[in-house]
Amino acid sequence: MENTYKMFILACLSLLLEFSSALYFHIGETERKCFIEEIPDETNVVVNYKVELYDPRTGGYIPPSSGIGMHVEVRDPDDKSILSRVYQAEGKILFTSHTPGEHGICMYSNSTAWFSGSQLRVHLDIQVGEHAINYGEVVQKEKLTELQLRIRQLLDQVEQISKEQNYQRVRMQYAMQYVNEVREPNILTQ
């Protein structure tokens, strides 16, 4: 029985690690950092971020003054702007994709008047699909039981898997069309 419990705990921990995709990066006052995320259509995306300013006195990072934030731009696969605005030093960005494909998420400082060219550290966590849903809020808002919540989570996962499969199917069709277009002239000339 104890081994079963240990295996259960280990499985839960591995699931938590699998869904954890947070990272941080350093950015200078004139730098722009972009990330590409492949997203199916009609999919919710949540970007959590936190900005910290390098403090040369301590050698660490501290919360920035109220004037420092991040300009965030999100572009769809057709290079159309989905979102472009300045955010505070810490927050959450929400958007929904309407076109399947590679979406660009770019960030840069809203200020070039830092202290002696300091660096910022930006913590970033991009959650796509059912991972973007805050089930704690859903439980409170809809007053769901534990079983109802689990069913809701499973339905959301099935929906996300279906969207991913459709997206991969479209990508495969484009790839096959490209291969056929490249090979066809070679076949006719031989």
From TrEMBL:
Gene Ontology cellular component terms for the protein in this record: membrane
Metal-binding among keywords: no
Entry superkingdom: Eukaryota
Chain coiled-coil ranges: none
Primary location group: membrane
Membrane topology listed for this record: Single-pass type I membrane protein
Cellular compartments annotated: Membrane
Keyword presence, RNA-binding: no
Record's keyword terms, sorted: Developmental protein, Membrane, Signal, Transmembrane, Transmembrane helix
Signal peptide annotation: 1-22
Domain GOLD residue range list: 32-128
Similarity comment text for this entry: Belongs to the EMP24/GP25L family.
Protein name: GOLD domain-containing protein
